Amino acid sequence: MFDKVLIAEDHQLTSLSLARTISDLGIPKVQYTYYCDDALMQIKKAVEEHSSFELLITDLSFAEDHREQRIKEGAELIAAVRIIQPTIKILVFSGESRPKVISKLYSDLNINGYVRKARHDAHDLNQALHTISKGKVYLPVQLRTQIKHSNNYEFSNLDITIVSQLSMGIKQNKIPEYLTANNIKPSGLSSIEKRLSAMREGLGFSNNEQLIAHCKDLGII
Predict the structure, then answer these.
(1) Strand 89-94 relative to strand 55-58, pairing
(2) Does the model's pTM come out above 0.70?
(3) pLDDT (tens digit, 9 = 90+) per residue, 81-106?
(4) Domains within the chain, CATH numbers bracketed
């Protein structure tokens, strides 16, 4: 699990809800900010002090007030954070429900998970944090449903991780090292080959390049 987390959220009650979830998980260092500019500043300072945050949890919408802000919404914040600290894990916690908008967060900003603010969001937050802490990508139910309806193959978190590694230019025989380092199982090369074969067969593709392009089109990598 994570040791140091930053939460960017402008609604105090939501921050308190997040705080309870994080407290239950035993995460020792949690900082909060209500502004995107402050969040970016804290991340930059932590990197400079060699005490980087491991996870950023951010909303997408931030209400404007008397304070002038350079960065006014979550997507801009994520893009800026990726420049300063490319490897930080990012979980979006928002009321946005449109699958196309959510998909673009994965494809364009490389977020690690999305949880919609809703009735059962505490459970979803818990699940998302566990998933992301293991080096996996967390997909919300509504996005999984869209993907399932788009084709006859339902991607698992392991599938997405494998294809994501391939899309970044990682050799297939090197992926077991990443999976092992992040405690993701199964991590053997034969298991990876079987998953890739199952994905290609299920989607009717003949090579991994087609599979990667398809996953990018869907917005899951």
Answers:
(1) parallel
(2) no
(3) 999 999 999 999 998 877 778 878 88
(4) 4-141 (3.40.50.2300), 151-218 (1.10.10)
